[in-house]
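queue> pop job 88
queue> type: inverse folding (structure -> sequence)
queue> payload:
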């Protein structure tokens, strides 16, 4: 049985963190989606970038609303056993509904930013059409609302391998401009599968901007990454923050 989108949005929002510029708003809103391991502090730096650009930001927690711990995430989400991108897409649809109830939010101007599993979630939310969405997400999907309200997306080392829909389906009836960051030494999601997904979007006529850091690993912008293969790069972290700010500026 599906949960009402508004009810799920309230539950997700309860565990998420909101950042807002000074004043009453309404502000355009950036929804920030974490990787498979859950919400981590480095994403709050990106939220503050959004605030400096005049946007509100919500760092969305997709684990706690589902009663999942960080250990659960490592054992089940990061291994692909549970919570695939299409299932997690419920959070995006529900948060779009929740924003309608927030006086500080301009629910008609939204930006989606996702890291790793969060990028997969964004991509699958577009790749699934209304008929295919039935039974695949926790709430009823509304592709028309998604396309009308989201003005841009940022995909940072997104997962686009087995189970991801974008390379095969594209984004159904199109989508917003895409900004992307791939890492040449990414041993978690690689760079070839994400590049293939981006190629599909570009071939379908979407505006796709790409940044490729040849010597970067997965989670290069997370100074607390628990994967031993990750190498923190503060210089690239700063660069991606600037890239994010530029994308928000283009969507204002």
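queue> result:
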């Amino acid at each position: 049985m599906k949960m009402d989108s508004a009810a799920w949005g309230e539950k997700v929002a309860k565990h998420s963190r909101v950042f807002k510029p000074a004043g009453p708003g309404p502000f355009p809103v950036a929804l920030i989606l974490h990787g498979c391991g859950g919400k981590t502090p480095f994403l709050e730096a990106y939220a503050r970038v959004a605030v400096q650009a005049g946007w509100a930001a919500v760092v969305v927690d997709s684990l706690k609303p589902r009663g999942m711990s960080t250990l659960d995430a490592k054992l089940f989400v990061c291994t692909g056993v549970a919570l695939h991108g299409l299932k997690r897409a419920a959070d995006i649809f529900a948060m779009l509904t929740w924003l309608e109830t927030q006086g500080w939010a301009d629910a008609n101007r939204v930006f989606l930013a996702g890291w790793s599993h969060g990028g997969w979630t964004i991509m699958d939310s577009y790749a699934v059409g209304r008929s295919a969405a039935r039974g695949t997400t926790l709430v009823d999907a509304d592709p028309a609302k998604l396309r009308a309200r989201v003005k841009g997306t940022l995909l940072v080392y997104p997962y686009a391998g087995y189970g991801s829909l974008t390379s095969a389906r594209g984004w159904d009836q199109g989508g917003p401009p895409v900004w992307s960051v791939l890492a040449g030494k990414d041993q978690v999601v690689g760079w070839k599968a994400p590049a293939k997904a981006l190629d599909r979007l570009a071939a379908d006529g979407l505006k796709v901007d790409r940044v490729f850091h040849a010597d970067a690993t997965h989670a290069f912008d997370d100074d607390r990454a628990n994967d031993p293969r990750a190498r923190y790069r503060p210089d690239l972290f700063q660069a991606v923050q600037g890239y994010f700010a530029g994308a928000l500026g283009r969507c204002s």
